[in-house]
Amino acid sequence: MATARVDLDGNTITPMTICMIGAGGFIGSHLCEKLMAETPHTVLAVDVYNDKIKHLLEPDSLPWNGRIQFHRLNIKNDSRLEGLIKCSDLTINLAAICTPADYNTRPLDTIYSNFIDALPVVKYCSENNKRLIHFSTCEVYGKTIGSFLPKDSPLRQDPAYYILKEDTSPCIFGSVEKQRWSYACAKQLIERLIYAEGAENGLEFTIVRPFNWIGPRMDFIPGIDGPSEGVPRVLACFSNNLLRREPLKLVDGGESQRTFIYIKDAIEAVLLMIENPARASGHIFNVGNPNNEVTVRQLAEMMTKVYSKVSGEEAIESPTIDVSSKEFYGEGYDDSDKRIPDMTIINKQLGWNPKTSLWDLLESTLTYQHRTYAEAIKQAIAKPTAN
Ligand code: NAD
Ligand code: UDP
């Protein structure tokens, strides 16, 4: 007989039903995969798309047959949502517009998606005494305090001026005309609402702040499985450039810094939250890898090297090109300068640590990108254009 799954305190974990909203996206697809392969839990997968989880839904002979059901619905306007939340033990909300190219060009959709559309989810969980794990973002921190210091100030090297801590760091956004911050601001307000529901009405919640989770199935490759003019997040932008043998575009010099974490490491943290409610509830967790910090320029250089290795193709002569943010994203773009997560709270509550180095995660991700897209790109490039 298989040994029972136990939580971090040695208690047996009983199978639960999870309503996962946004299950068809990048993070949702990996979380569904993990839950099906390694746990006895059932998932009610809610999304408007299911392409990224199709391999989990069909055929009927899959070992987890019956433990995952797809519900195609738009949470903006579907009365079935409350019923799905009511018949679940836990709701995980991943649904959002979360691509920077949309924040300044579609600020209304961004605010509606990240705040207004999340309101009924919070309300149904609170009214029905259901637990909620809500996905926020590291972007709620905005810019670091250090970014306002003079360029040559020695204080810029002091972690007190740049490490982002859930319970003490302020949230610093640009002016209202910089519509980039519409996303961060909407996410911050929904965090505050969830926190207040916890404080005033006893909602059992956990808030997750992802710090640049990357890996296979992230976003889309323009012109192949997404719009030709679409601008995805940096991993997919650079992958697209590498696949097409075009220079990688560095926005405003590629000086911004990010810490990247492998999706599979991050999903381990989410599973711990799901299965350890007593340790996770009432907390906001940074989930990132502080050891994987690079500038965007360094990311471009590393991706170029890794892609050469996995594809066997030599890099092009000028692998990067500079573009202004106005040219690339349009009016109203602004940027987060640096994002290093403090790991104290997640370490203390869940004993979790990320494992995968940036080189290793890029190697497995770009191997996937090459295997999945190289042939389709070749055919798209070879296709004669219509007159
Ligand atoms: P994603 O775009 O791949 O997934 C979001 C999913 O939500 C999509 O499949 C989309 O179809 C679905 N969705 C959106 N609106 C919906 C609606 N009205 N009804 C039904 N489904 C809807 O994004 P992701 O990277 O998987 O991100 C998931 C969550 O994590 C988001 O809330 C995002 O803000 C947050 N996040 C992710 C990262 C990251 O590094 N990937 C970083 C910060 C925050
Ligand atoms: N970026 C870039 N070239 C691209 C796409 C993005 O230089 O082709 C930069 C972008 O300006 C930002 C960083 O890469 O500084 C990360 O962008 P991403 O879209 O992944 O999201 P963010 O981390 O800003 O939320």
Automatic annotation (TrEMBL):
GO biological process: cell wall organization; UDP-D-apiose biosynthetic process
Catalytic reaction list: UDP-alpha-D-glucuronate + H(+) = UDP-alpha-D-xylose + CO2; UDP-alpha-D-glucuronate + H(+) = UDP-alpha-D-apiose + CO2
InterPro entries linked to this entry: Arna-like_SDR_e (IPR045869), Epimerase_deHydtase (IPR001509), Lipid_A_modif_metabolic_enz (IPR050177), NAD(P)-bd_dom_sf (IPR036291)
Domain NAD-dependent epimerase/dehydratase: start-end pairs: 18-288
Highest taxon listed in the record's lineage: Eukaryota
GO terms for cellular component: cytoplasm
Main location, first listed in the record: cytoplasm
Molecular function terms, GO-annotated: identical protein binding; protein heterodimerization activity; UDP-D-apiose synthase activity; UDP-glucuronate decarboxylase activity
Keyword line: Cell wall biogenesis/degradation, Cytoplasm, Lyase, NAD
A Pfam family it matches: Epimerase
Required cofactor(s): NAD(+)
Top EC group: lyase
Localization (cell): Cytoplasm
EC numbers on record: 4.1.1.35
Family, similarity comment: Belongs to the NAD(P)-dependent epimerase/dehydratase family.
Protein name: UDP-glucuronate decarboxylase
The species this protein was found in: Helianthus annuus (Common sunflower)
